[in-house]
Amino acid sequence: MGFNNEGADVIAERLKNWREKEGRQNKKLPMIIGGNIGKNKVTPNEEAWNDYAVCFNKLHPYVDYFAVNVSSPNTPGLRELQEKDSLKKILLNLAMMNNAKAVAKPVLLKIAPDITPAQLDDVIELALEIKLDGIIATNTTISRAGLTTPIEEVEKMGAGGLSGKPVTERSTAIVKYIFEKANGQIPIIASGGIFTAMDAREKLKAGASLVQVWTGFIYEGPAIVSKICKKLNQ
Ligand SMILES: Cc1cc2nc3c(=O)[nH]c(=O)nc-3n(C[C@H](O)[C@H](O)[C@H](O)COP(=O)(O)O)c2cc1C
Fold first, then answer.
1. CA pair distance 119, 116, nearest whole angstrom
2. Largest Cα–Cα distance of the chain, in whole Å?
3. pTM for the whole structure
4. CA of 195: how far to CAs of 132, 200, 202, 218, in Å?
5. Which domains occur in the chain, in start order?
């Protein structure tokens, strides 16, 4: 699979045009844009840091923050980049480039729900050490546990990440673990199985500062955001 898209040059150009157009109409841009960056499928992991650097540089002027994606199950080997040494190389290089820009952009790390406990401890330690702006927890899961669809059918569907309800509990547990282990010192954006205000509240209770909806957006439509916000504020 890999990340099928038109490439960083095309995306950067599109975002640039959008900013110019919106900037002319409104003083303030109507949306926050996060640049989600990952390595190409064909790039060996030892050279992955350079793919992140290329995407980072091209998108930097046009996004508000970055999500460093080392957690998609759809690019072979990508999740191995969650190992401390690989992560350190990628993130320190991005921090160096970021600090050299006129305006630094927040850089967040997006992790997998299937991360091992040892890897998660390493991520937290590293995030505190290098003063990472935050962690996005979590991406989709490779687990097929707890599904009602018969296993033969699930297997026929093939590999790939599972999103929505099946990832809810695991992602909440990871948010809670990071919050407690880091004494609330790492901002957390929670992602995974948020469909309702109650789901969002669970993530906030676990220690998240912000939440993201993805699958919920598909099933509930764009109104999901105002519905959740209204309920949360009641
Ligand atoms: C079709 C699809 C494509 C996705 N693509 C990306 C991606 O490119 N980068 C990334 O970090 N996460 C990606 N994700 C993960 C989502 O951003 C989200 O973290 C995950 O699905 C859990 O949240 P949800 O249960 O609200 O969907 C994708 C998820 C789906 C379902």
1. 5
2. 54
3. 0.96
4. 28, 8, 11, 10
5. 8-233 (3.20.20.70)
Pocket of ligand 1 (CB under 6 A): 3, 36, 67, 69, 72, 110, 139-140, 163-164, 167, 191-194, 213-216
Q: Which of 175, 214, 225 best tests ligand 1's pocket when mutated (most atoms within 8 Å of CB)?
A: 214
Which three-class secondary structure state does DSSP give residue 208? coil
In ligand 1, the atom with minimum distance to the C-alpha of 214 is 26
Q: Return the SS3 of 189.
A: strand
Q: Which value, in Å, is the radius of gyration of the alpha carbons in the chain?
A: 18
Taking alpha carbons only, the member of 226, 143, 124 closest to residue 185 is: 124
Q: Say how far apart CA 128 and CA 131 lie, in whole Å.
A: 5
What is the number of other CB atoms lying within 10 angstroms of the CB of residue 76?
12
Cα of 96 vs centre of ligand 1, distance in Å, is 28
* CA–CA separation, 30 and 32 (whole Å): 7
Could you list the pLDDT tens digit for every one of the 234 residues in the chain?
A: 899 999 999 999 999 999 999 888 777 888 999 999 999 999 999 999 999 999 999 999 999 999 999 989 888 888 999 888 999 999 999 999 999 999 999 999 999 999 999 999 999 999 999 999 999 999 999 999 989 999 999 999 999 999 999 999 999 999 999 999 999 999 999 999 999 999 999 999 999 999 999 999 999 999 999 999 999 988
